Amino acid sequence: MAGLTALADSFHLTPHEALSGVFGSISLAAWIFLLVPQLVENYKQGSAEGISLAFLTVWFIGDITNLVGAVWAGLVPTVIALAVYFCFADLLLIAQCVYYNVSNARRARKASELSAQSGSSEEEPLLSRRGSENIGLPGSRRRSSAASRRRTLSGGRRDSLSKILEEESKNRVWLRNAISVVLICCAGAAGWVIAWKSGVWRPAP
């Protein structure tokens, strides 16, 4: 707070004006990067199952009306540019969701058709192999039970290892998200400083 007060004094601003500018700039940066994590996550997963297209459509309609209102009211060019950016980002997210939904549905339909065609031929060796496991020399059942115990132990070790790796990945995701939030706040504050020094931003009376 003391550093912000000194910065405001050097710029001939009150602390309230400086805080208002910084918070407004951080809010602007957050809105600009709002859809970027979702776009990246959809690309990494190759799916958009958790997103409602109806929600995105309503959001896009709101951004369109915001752009029309900004143009008709003759607002400053930065507001109009941001409204255009929001519409573009909404269209990009909607296009990504439609693409992944259609491609995944087509892939699932092809996989179901292939499994339906080759289902009978694939089941026969499995059934015969399952029946042959119970037939063997004396003592084979003891060996099979020992092997099953070993498989159970190794499976338990793999489960515990997978749990540890899952917890570590969750911690990494949390840390990455926290760093992203801090970077957005820093970018917003830096944007306010640049806008103030260049004369783009001035406190309104």
TrEMBL record:
Stretches for region Disordered: 113-155
Catalytic activity from the UniProt record: L-histidine(out) + L-arginine(in) = L-histidine(in) + L-arginine(out)
Swiss-Prot/TrEMBL GO biological process terms: vacuolar transmembrane transport
Residue ranges crossing the lipid bilayer per the database entry: 20-40, 52-73, 79-102, 173-195
Protein's membrane topology: Multi-pass membrane protein
Pfam families assigned to the protein according to its UniProt record, in alphabetical order: PQ-loop
Compartments, record wording: Membrane
Start-end of Basic residues biased regions: 140-152
Cross-referenced SMART domains: CTNS
Listed PANTHER family: SEVEN TRANSMEMBRANE PROTEIN 1 (PTHR16201:SF44), SEVEN TRANSMEMBRANE PROTEIN 1-RELATED (PTHR16201)
Family listed: Belongs to the laat-1 family.
Name of the featured protein: Vacuolar amino acid transporter YPQ3
